[in-house]
Design a protein that fits this description.
Layout lengths: L7 H8 L6 E3 L2 E7 L3 H18 L4 E4 L3 E6 L10 H13 L7
Antiparallel strand pairs: 1-2, 2-4, 3-4
């Protein structure tokens, strides 16, 4: 099943619902700052679980007190798709400091 790239308007609408996330060169990106390296490493484990559930994986970089994500849909030619925003929303839901809505 082909995954369709989102239009620029669709990307902007979805970004408005994800504070802290940005679209850069066909990638959806965000960096989380955490209280410790252990907290950052724990977040990476939770992100990996979500990625496996969705069968959609990002580039995830673990820093000393940070986790940086870059998400794109390779099967759509490196364009942003609904799959990218679904992953971003799921990560946002479990990220420290997130207020559930």
């Amino acid at each position: 099943m082909a995954v369709e790239p989102l239009s620029q308007k669709e990307i902007e609408e979805r970004l408005a619902e994800l504070p802290g996330w940005s679209a850069d060169g066909g990638r959806l990106t965000r960096t989380y700052r955490l209280a410790s390296h252990f907290a950052a490493a724990a977040l990476v484990v939770h992100i990996a679980r979500i990625q496996d559930e969705l069968d959609h994986h990002s580039d995830c970089t673990l820093g000393y007190h940070s986790v940086a994500l870059a998400v794109t849909t390779h099967s759509a030619g490196g364009a942003l798709t609904e799959k990218d925003f679904t992953l971003a929303r799921r990560v946002e839901d479990i990220a420290p400091g997130h207020d559930a809505h």
